[in-house]
Structure prediction request, 247 residues.
Amino acid sequence: MARAKRTDRAEARRRYRAAMVEQGQGEPEAAEVDQDRAAARAGRSAYPGAGAAARTPERPGIFSAFRLAMRPVHYIDDLRYAPTLILRTNAIWPPVLISVVALAYGLTRTDYNDPSIQFVTSFALPMTPLIQPMLAGFLAPRATWLAGLITSVISGICFEILILWYYSGHLANLPASQANLTSDEYVSFTIQVLATAVALGSLLGAASGWYKRFLTLAGAGSTRNQKRPAAKKPAPRQASRGSTARR
Prediction:
């Protein structure tokens, strides 16, 4: 009987609200709230697992992450994005700073037998740049191939300046087989360095950007696998005043 009375009262309240809304004296938000609740109930019934999926996204597998990390290249849009990439992101200046610092240090060396020269020309500022395009591709938010190309070309130019400085008589103990570098040989060497920088730099930048996206996708939802915090122990129930034990 009590349940029937509550049902009748709820029905009467709904009819009253509907009548007030029709007369313009009620609040139309109440009707909208009821419609939203009905739609939400319908959505939950139609998709019973949608709410749980939205709360806990599934982590893709290794092969799915490998495939999803690939992005099509939009050359025109990436070239238009170049000013923003250079001036408003941190993708270009760290690799360029590495090349400039390595060039400045290499210009201060005067002996071919100095071990630091081998470090500069083989690691920090090599003929085939590796660190600069990979770092740029990892830092770039988009157009990773373009970031790798730009930083690789700048590194190649710094390397050419360093070699021209060395072979123009500023480096002692230079082997005789390398001391006589003609202008034609230097031009062909420059073309080779820049061509390698363009091809390999763009490839390394794109590969580094793909690897960054792969790590992001492979690590998605990893928080679900973390150890759950230990449940708090319930506080001890306090004894009521009238339930003290008799001694």
